[in-house]
Protein 1
Amino acid sequence: MSHIRLIQVETYEEMSRLAADRISAQIQRKPDSVLGLATGSSPVGTYQLLVEGCAMGDLDFSKIRTVNLDEYCGLAPEDPRSYRYFMDYHLFNRVNIEKKNTFVPDGLAEDPEAEAAAYERRIESMGGVDLQLLGIGHNGHIGFNEPAEGFAPNTHVVELAKRTREANAKFFDRPEDMPRFALTMGIGSILRARKILLLGGPDKAEIMDRAMHGPVSPDVPASVLQLHPDVTFLLCAQPPQKRK
Ligand code: F6R
């Protein structure tokens, strides 16, 4: 039996509001929470609302610590296509968080395997993730855990699936610039979070349904979330409206 709760709303803005409210409640309940964060289009509206909450004095990030799910191998932090840059731009540079308390895997690590192991140890030494925010790929990936033979327990180096590379190639001038490898938290790292919140737009409705009700299988990595006791899926029926 799946424990996953599904909340369906009409607009992207409503979805972002619900997600931001849950994250805000977490921050207020435990001001030194460890937040697990994601990049991509799904959480951008949520981050915007957290920025507004902080500007209005309702939210204090000064003791918050964050760990991001993933990063491309080969991209520097100041590269606008890197996930570190995305997080700085959308959230960290706009709230009162201490940069030293924000962690994204190091895409330039000389030894990516060693970086992956160190990243996992870091999450553990922080006491684990209190609330993990996720998006989902069309193939059911979470983080960069692509459909595979098995579930990866820990942070690791991964070769990106063809479909993921195609979906993300729009951010790169030439298709050959798209990195082939990434560092990602493993399925085990994600499942060890105490609460999980997954966001998706209308194009993700079908894969979210499979993840919730299909067999638990590494063919659809997000299906493993059925085994976690505190997961909420937020699904919006409309894509984000372009700001005028
Ligand atoms: C991003 C990540 C990915 C995305 C997923 C959905 O850090 O880990 O798994 O969450 O690809 O991306 P969007 O939200 O752009 O549809």
Note: The helical segments are 12-29, 44-55, 83-90, 112-125, 162-168, 187-191, 205-213.
Protein 2
Amino acid sequence: MALLTLERSQHSISRKNISAAALRTLYRLRDAGFKAYLVGGCVRDLLLGKAPKDFDISTNARPDQVHRLFTNSRIIGRRFKIVHVVYGSEIIEVTTFRTDSDDAVQSRDGMIVRDNSYGTSIEDDAQRRDFTINAIYYDIDNFSLLDFHGGLYDLTHGVIDIIGDPDKRYQEDPVRMIRALRFKAKLGFKLAKRTEEPLSRLAPLLLNISNARMFDEVNKLFLTGHGLQSYRELKRYNILQLLFPGQEDFIGTPKFDSFLEYALTSSDQRTLLQKRNKPHFLYTVFLWPKIEKLVYDLKVRYQSSPKAPSTSYLVEEACLRALTAQHSVTAIPAVITADIKRLIHLVYQITDDELQASQIESVAQQGLFRAAFDMIKLRAQFEPEIIPYVKFWQHYYDEAQERFVKAKALKDERLKQRQDRRKSRRSKSKRRKEEKAQALPLSKAQQADLLTAAQEEFGSDNAKERQERLARARAWRAAMNLEP
Ligand code: ATP
Ligand code: MG
């Protein structure tokens, strides 16, 4: 496909909409003699008039060269080496042009497991990107746009199309299948026929992806404001059950479906209100029906035994089984696993008729109480028997919410004070440096002159003082008729 170039006057991307950190990184690379482009989601989203999630840069500088240019950077990644340039909480991802090479290590299924062969040509780099709409480059040298694969056309027509042969590209990296559906959900685009066709057929290749990478992908699918649409797309292409193993009995049932649709709608709503969605809540929602069934089955199994275990023990056992199965697909970090378990225990506690009155306050004081309440509120939509519990805990929830708002305001205030102090320290030290720089440097001869003058003054001061002391002593002796 022929290269399409749009000069600055022919497109809508303005530097005003590019983060200061990204611009600084681009300029420093350019000033060091390298080529530097914005590419990927940021260009795509800016052209669509959306705020980019992050800014990615592509360059002909190798990772070590980038790292040397930025003291605030680190090299990450094994499969692909990338440089993260860190500005406070903002991270700019800088990748080196890649090229097709025989050095790429492939698995038996054609999956690229390691590839750090760097290129010098932007055309090769564009060829290696996933979709046409993700391969538009913004050149910091002259602010033009470079489109190698018809991405601008697809962007205006709302189409997601993979670059190159679809089967081969999905085999190289099956995550591209999930990415296709994520962009479809996020942007409300259509998939090109050839991009869509292999999805259900090649979906099982996703099982070859490392569980750490899958954990990140699942978060991107469900936590960033288009969870409901992602869920519908994944279901439609039979990918959902691959992400949540052992859920086959529930996926597709009206109850599970309504529950998830409702839960994901409310988490998308949170994103609109600029509230964060947390993975522990997401997994609790997805795993809930399975854990509930496991707890029920375990209860039945132990029913006739003389020493029936406590509900808490059964919940722990059910969580362990469900989370172990889930871990084979998505590597949920231990802190999040602990939160999921605590949350599920709390959900059982606040729907337990045998909860002691003395325990109520301490339950309501727990860190995850508000999340547990949200969970039963969701369930109450489909399980009328849960409604009385929602009514009972509502008052405690309101109080917990008030405490949370107050604590957050206090935290924000402290943070602001710390930032102000840091700012004032910085401006003081800047002022001191400027004052120092303003003072004229003295030559060696001038320094020597000043020293002598000071010594003479010091010496003469001492002599004067000595003489005055002597005169006073003489006068006193004379007054006392003492020997001179
Ligand atoms: P967003 O950041 O909004 O989720 P994005 O397109 O920027 O979307 P990133 O994961 O940040 O997604 O990737 C940046 C760019 O890197 C992509 O736009 C694409 O050009 C390229 N890319 C990312 N993952 C792949 C992949 N698996 N295969 C090929 N190219 C990829
Ligand atoms: Mg991005």
Note: The two ends are 115 Å apart (CA to CA).
